[in-house]
Amino acid sequence: MALDIFLLRELLAAAVLFFITRYFIRALLKKSNRTLPPGPKGWPVVGALPLLGSMPHVTLAKLAKKYGPVMYLKMGACNMVVASTPDAARAFLKTVDLNFSNRPANAGATHLAYNSQDMVFADYGPRWKLLRKLSNLHLLGGKALEDWSQVRAVELGHVLRAICESSQKGEPVVVPEMLTYSMANMIGQVILSRSVFVTKGSESNEFKDMVVELMTFAGIFNIGDFIPSIAWMDLQGIEREMKKLNKRWDVLLTKMMEEHAKTAQERKGKPDFLDIIMANRENSEGEKLNLTNVKALLLNLFTAGTDTSSSIIEWALAEMMKNPKIFKKAHEEMDKVIGRNRRLQESDIPKLPYFQALCKETFRKHPSTPLNLPRVSAQACEINGYYIPKNTRLSVNIWAIGRDPDVWENPLDFKPERFLNGKHAKIDPRGNDFELIPFGAGRRICAGTRMGIVLVGYILGTLVHSFEWMLPNGGELNMDEAFGLALQKAVPLSAMARPRLAPTAYVPKF
């Protein structure tokens, strides 16, 4: 009885807060000639939360067609604004980028990212700058990526041989599992001087499951984040699952760091990424990273570094299998430039314009992050003549921008040719062209943008060049999406691979 009364009181308080924030603030804005962007009215207390459904990026894109490119939603007790076109994204992520350089507090940052101790959720400030600087210098920047190109080549060689073995046995390749295994080992070699997984099996599959779980939980609209007064009830059970998952990750990361410390003597004169981070944990501003910061950073690198790139590659292969003419064009270009007597090398990619266009088309139609990680306004501002209050959450619908019919002709078609000539020929996915921002833009653009582009180009190019890909037993190709922080295929791609190069091309030469 006491609990029922307490619950009723909390819900009543939430309802009162909703009506106060909704109507009182609107009245004040009207009186001061300040106009909020248009948007759906939503429901009492919960606002627009029930409208989002299981595919928020799709729902928000549909709502934007009705309410416009800059749309306002009351989400529980919180304000949220959604940008759904290139111009709207540019206004937020370039014109007033500094004002939206922080992340709002949420359960994901608290329970998955060690209470925002990582690089992804940290406030824009000295600690974030130190984490970003160290990551760029020694792992994610251009020079660092060149330095570990040999690691990518060796690890991908292992994958090619494994695929050849599956082909000989007549077994299909489960593409996302294969990609996660490969990328985790590439990143592990650079960070820890060792492969994370010795063999592909239950351990690597569990890692893949943990990555997908984390990215899924991080993308869910958690009711408690938007109605703080009832967050303690954890109505969706999300926070409970987040805490369990964080414990599993903490066990794995702690084990990695402990084993790494034991082999420090073996790396004298040849430090890896973790050695460098541990030796440079303090900057000139007096900011010092603790072990939790380091652990949280490793979590960022292993999850975002594997899941986002692997999802792009999986979608690209699926689109090509759906349209064999695209596969044929890619093979013809690669055979002309590379031939069939050797593997593709990273230096070949600039000579493959059709393949580069294919990668851009995948970034457009299947961005790994459909909705950018939310940001929040530090101060009130004005966008496109609309008033944006302080502490308003910003969501950029990257998925909707890539399918905007005012920007892209026949946006639902997969046409790499659109990037070969005309107005889209020089568009680049690195955050400066707002028609194509798969990694976001501005100060909080994904730190792994360069790495993501390199991994997608090299791994996808090698898989396309090295094999013919077919559905097992003439099965049907499912192209449904599964929403999360990263946009997964609802049904993982499983395909038969047939080698198409000379046998010597698959023999390791390192």
TrEMBL record:
<keyword id="KW-0503">Monooxygenase</keyword>
<keyword id="KW-0812">Transmembrane</keyword>
<keyword id="KW-0479">Metal-binding</keyword>
<dbReference type="GO" id="GO:0020037">
    <property type="term" value="F:heme binding"/>
</dbReference>
<keyword id="KW-0472">Membrane</keyword>
<dbReference type="GO" id="GO:0033772">
    <property type="term" value="F:flavonoid 3',5'-hydroxylase activity"/>
</dbReference>
<keyword id="KW-0349">Heme</keyword>
<dbReference type="InterPro" id="IPR036396">
    <property type="entry name" value="Cyt_P450_sf"/>
</dbReference>
<feature type="transmembrane region" description="Helical">
    <location>
        <begin position="6"/>
        <end position="25"/>
    </location>
</feature>
<keyword id="KW-0560">Oxidoreductase</keyword>
<comment type="function">
    <text>Catalyzes the 3'5'-hydroxylation of naringenin and eriodictyol to form 5,7,3,'4',5'-pentahydroxyflavanone and 3',5'-hydroxylation of dihydrokaempferol and dihydroquercetin to form dihydromyricetin.</text>
</comment>
<comment type="pathway">
    <text>Pigment biosynthesis; anthocyanin biosynthesis.</text>
</comment>
<keyword id="KW-0408">Iron</keyword>
<dbReference type="Pfam" id="PF00067">
    <property type="entry name" value="p450"/>
</dbReference>
<feature type="binding site" description="axial binding residue">
    <location>
        <position position="446"/>
    </location>
    <ligand>
        <name>heme</name>
    </ligand>
</feature>
<protein>
    <recommendedName>
        <fullName>flavonoid 3',5'-hydroxylase</fullName>
        <ecNumber>1.14.14.81</ecNumber>
    </recommendedName>
</protein>
<comment type="similarity">
    <text>Belongs to the cytochrome P450 family.</text>
</comment>
<dbReference type="GO" id="GO:0005506">
    <property type="term" value="F:iron ion binding"/>
</dbReference>
<dbReference type="InterPro" id="IPR017972">
    <property type="entry name" value="Cyt_P450_CS"/>
</dbReference>
<keyword id="KW-0521">NADP</keyword>
<dbReference type="InterPro" id="IPR002401">
    <property type="entry name" value="Cyt_P450_E_grp-I"/>
</dbReference>
<keyword id="KW-1133">Transmembrane helix</keyword>
<dbReference type="InterPro" id="IPR001128">
    <property type="entry name" value="Cyt_P450"/>
</dbReference>
